Amino acid sequence: MSSNIIELIRENVIQGRVTKDDEGIEEGMAGQPGVTELVEEALASGADVSEVISKGLTASMEVVGQKFETGEYFIPDMLASAEAVGAAMEILKPHLQKSGIKPKGKILIATVKGDIHDIGKNIVIILLRGAGYQVKDIGNNIEAKDIVKAVREEKPDYLGLSALLTSTMVSMEDTIQALEESGLRDKVKIIIGGAPVSEEYAREIGADGYGADGFHAVSVIEALNDSE
Amino acid sequence: MTLMNDPIQIDKDKILNRIGYNGNSTPSSRIDSLVDDYIENYHDFIAPFYSHTVRGIKAVNGNRVDTGDSIILESYKVARLMERCEKVAFFACTIGNYLEDLAAHLAEKGLILQATVLDAIASGTVEKLAIWVEQSIRKDTGRDGFIISRRFSPGYCDWDVSQQGLVFKALGDNAAGINLNDSMLMVPQKSVSGIIGIGRPDKEIENYNPCITCLEKDCPGRRR
Question: Would the N or C end of chain A have less CB density within 10 A of its end CB?
Fold first, then answer.
């Protein structure tokens, strides 16, 4: 029974269906239970929460990631799936602690000082949550000193910095320097992303990684996580 | 500043392109209807304002274009255009902040697909408005026998975004209700500002495109 529901959750995440009212990537699915109804059903039937997450949500996002990489899925398809995972995680949140499930890691994420763009950052957040990380968004146009304060208080494993413009990406370097000056640089791995930045720029400013897009950011963090 | 009363018609293909589809790919019916729904309704949520002013070019030296009153544009590529022009039009336009606020609200609620589609529609709409402003400047200047160049905006190519303040200085109080933050970014975000060269009929002005000889082939602002 429970493996059946988990398989259905997996299928519906891949179809990007949050509720029964949603159509899928394939047509003719509206009216059938979506991810939120299925997750509720799974909980009611006593399914193992960690299994719902690992086999139902995380595994299905890996499939979505592959479909995106091969060009079968486009950005909106990927976002629909990520939304379904986000909705499922909201339902599962109260059950995580009870079940003793720990997130894979804690991530703070911010758009750096001067920059007010956040669509890309929001995509990365939803994908990271879907991959099992605890993510705290500290907002847009965040000054280096405020990021340092948040790192000191929250003690994250990772810090994600985002910028959309060449004029604001320099704030990433300022932030890394401020972390160094405050003695916190070695306590957190830093990943940067955004249209003007690159792997080379990440190395240049002393970041630990660069995410070219949402799925790439997740895989970079997974790789850093595995190497610890 | 002026409220633009003509309806802005956006091109659905361009919106689809902004969210990742190209000529060879089509969205699923769900995504297609979502885009259609938003395109049908976005008109009610925009307030398209624009303004422009024209100044004479006093001198062009190296990478500096002097338009008087300490409004000196600094860009080698802009200067190569302006040395052929007599005047420069400064413009700014916006669709207001409602769509971007709504997109931010949707993203906060986890509705990232809807937020992304709405953001693409907002970007497409302000781009269309900028095209309309450009055409309106073309019409105005054409009556006096002048032609215009393409649009150039601070923050693109070698024209630093820090010079955006000069565009707004030229526009004075008449700046379409747009404010600049400390980083010289426009608020509302869905705004476009820039300059257009004005001169006597000259293909070198009309067709001037520094992208053609530029080696940055992957530049997101590259124009054909």
Answer: C
According to DSSP, residue B48 is labeled -
Flag whether B76 is in a domain.
Answer: no
Look up the ipTM and state it: 0.80
Q: Provide the token pair at A215.
A: 């799925």
Residue B163: inside a domain: yes
pLDDT tens digits, one per residue of A150-161: 999 999 999 999
CATH numbers and ranges of domains, chain A: 2-98 (1.10.1240.10), 106-226 (3.40.50.280)
Domain interval for residue B169: 2-55+86-213
B185: contact with A, CB 8 A cutoff: yes
Question: Which pLDDT tens digit goes with each residue over A172-218?
Answer: 999 999 999 999 999 999 999 998 889 999 999 999 999 988 888 98
In chain B, count of helices (H) and strands (E)?
Answer: 7, 10
Residue A139 near residue A113, CB atoms below 8 Å? no
> How many domains does chain B contain in total?
1
Instruction: Test A23 with B25 for CB contact under 8 angstroms.
Output: no
